[in-house]
């Protein structure tokens, strides 16, 4: 291990080069310029099945993620999550929440819970692990401040970070993005994304 910080960017956007993609890319470039190694996972290109809610992955104790019955791309993604030192976690807001592909990924994070059948509530496997850092990125049609506090996206991104053992060090919520089909993020948004990414390094 060479000591280089490894950042994993998980992007739940549907649109190639949309607002969320652009904001994530600005954050990635800033992190790389600061010396970090960054890998981007586009959930729209990642083969992840729906959770079966069988809870087989939650039965064994320990801080390591449980093993899912599915044999798809999720195990490789969990391995990347485990190997990363910090995260950029992103999803646009659709119908007041994260996108469906992000929610599918989020539900599969149940491998990070210890939840035997004789317990009424789960225990997060990473509760006692040293916390990593995460930056949360989203966008919505409403003004940014309204989108952040009125919709469920921010809370879902934050829960995702907590589930994998990370704490948010900052959030970028870009609003009013539905006025043009191919909108470009402003320099101000790029600068904020860059500043947040530097907090991870």
Walk me through the structure.
The chain is an alpha/beta fold and 201 residues long. The protein has a single domain (6-198), classed as Rossmann fold, CATH 3.40.50.360. It is built from six helices and seven strands, in the order βαβαβαβββααβα. The protein has helices at 19-33, 74-83, 100-108, 144-150, 153-163, 187-198, and strands at 6-11, 37-42, 86-90, 113-114, 123-124, 132-139, 166-174. A five-stranded parallel sheet has the order 2-1-3-6-7, with helices on both faces. A two-stranded antiparallel ribbon has the order 4-5. β1 (6-11), α1 and β2 form a beta-alpha-beta unit. The protein is globular.
Key words describing this protein structure:
alpha/beta; 5-stranded parallel β-sheet; Rossmann fold; 32% helix; 201 residues; two-stranded antiparallel sheet; 6 helices
